[in-house]
Amino acid sequence: MAIVQNWRRIMPNAKSVVVLLFPDFSNHCLANAIEPLRGANTLARRTAWIWQFVSVDGAPVRSSSGLPVQPEGRLADHPGGDLLLVMPSYGFEGHATPACLAALRGAARRFDALAGLDTGSWLLAAAGLLTGRRATIHWDELDRFAEAFPEVSVVDDRFVVDGDRLSCGGTTTTLELMLTLVEREGGPMLALDVAALFMHGERDPRLDPSLRVPPDRLVRAAVALMRRNVEAPLPVAELARRLGLSQRALEAQFAAAMGRGPRSVYASVRLGTARRLAEQTTLSVAEIAARVGYANASAMTRAFRAEFGAPPRTMRRGA
Q1: Which of 183, 138, 171, 131 is nearest to 157 (CA)?
Q2: Residue 170: band (very low, low, confident or very high) from pLDDT cuts 50, 70, 90
Q3: Within the chain, which residue ranges are assigned CATH 1.10.10.60?
Q4: DSSP state letter for 136
Q5: What is d(CA 220, CA 261) in angstroms, rounded to the nearest whole number?
Q6: Mean pLDDT computed over 125-147
Q7: Under a CB-based contact definition with an 8 Å cutoff, are residues 182 and 135 in contact?
Q8: pLDDT above 90 covers what percent of the chain?
């Protein structure tokens, strides 16, 4: 029997995530759960998240498309952590065995939070771990879920966070839930950067003049415009105009969502691009400055140092 490492003890400053996999799990769902954490580590340049894979019995599992995964051990043997992701997909009702439900109830005492991904909420509810809680599930199963578990407040939403119980309805919504967790730990700017890494965000409103962006997505839409215009930065008034807002309204949206104004966020977007260019290319500092909208390399270097605590050349040597 494999020994499950207690990474929470070994790396106490990192958030520990354990993924409980079942036969026929979704590759897409697994990637959308783990890749945002890997992206957050990469962009934060530290190990902010660690993860492990387990199964109910410790045996290897295959995804719905045949990808084999060797878990590190049994769920019952795991010492616990910050978050357990419960990830069945197809055939989920057959996984609700006495052994599985007992293992989940035991895990609820060792993990700070539990999340049902895709159809994972069904297993959490069957184990009695969603009683009196709000939860969602894949939309194909919403009605049956509500009928089977009347003690659960079933919500038709993309993802739900109810204290230490989390749930989402599918693969794309898994990415959105994980971005929310990244934002909790690393702040909204890191979450925006991770979303951009996977091109998850709003399309440029100029591509569709009839587009009306809902208020909760205006900041992402604005940041998408910023990323497309780092070499020749747009005035805030122009950003607002393209989004069909007044400048004051856009600034209010940023203050509410980010705790910062759009100018400050735009500067961070440009300097983040400068850092990537410094670390990943051989462009001169002057060329990097030009590519992120600075006419003066010295001015860019001063802003770069203020943002990251070191000049571009130091970042290049470190990379």
Answers
A1: 138
A2: confident
A3: 201-319
A4: -
A5: 13
A6: 95
A7: no
A8: 75
Record the tokens describing residue 284, joined without a space.
Answer: 């001169």
Q: Which residues pair with 81 in a beta bridge?
A: 111
What are the C-alpha distances in Å from 96 to residues 40, 93, 155, 157, 162? Answer: 33, 6, 22, 24, 22
Residues of the chain with CATH 3.40.50.880: 7-186
CATH of domain 7-186: 3.40.50.880
Query: Going by C-beta distance under 8 Å and a sequence separation of 6 or more, which residues neighbour residue 175?
Result: 32, 36, 198, 200
Q: What DSSP designation does 4 have?
A: P
pLDDT tens by residue, 115-125: 999 999 999 99
Q: Which two three-digit tokens encode residue 163?
A: 């204290």
Out of 52-56, 183-187, 197-201, pick the least confident.
197-201
Is the pTM higher than 0.85? Answer: no
Phi, psi of 57 (to 5 degrees): -110, 0
* Neighbouring residues of 99: CB distance < 8 A, sequence distance ≥ 6: 56, 57
- Helices and strands, number each (H, E), in the chain: 14, 10
Please give the CATH superfamily to which domain 201-319 belongs: Homeodomain-like (1.10.10.60)
Contacts 24+ apart (CB under 8 A), 221-227: 222/250, 222/253, 222/254, 222/262, 223/192, 223/196, 223/265, 223/269, 224/196, 226/262, 226/265, 226/266, 226/269, 226/270, 227/196, 227/269, 227/273
Q: How far is CA 250 from the centre of its chain?
A: 24
Tokens standing for 150?
Answer: 């009347």
Enumerate the H helices of 12-73 as residue ranges. Answer: 27-44
- What pLDDT does residue 210 have? 46
With vertex at residue 63, the alpha carbon angle to CA 59 and CA 68, rounded to the nearest 5 degrees, is: 55
The helix or strand, by DSSP H or E, that contains position 135, with its residue range, turns out to be: strand 134-135
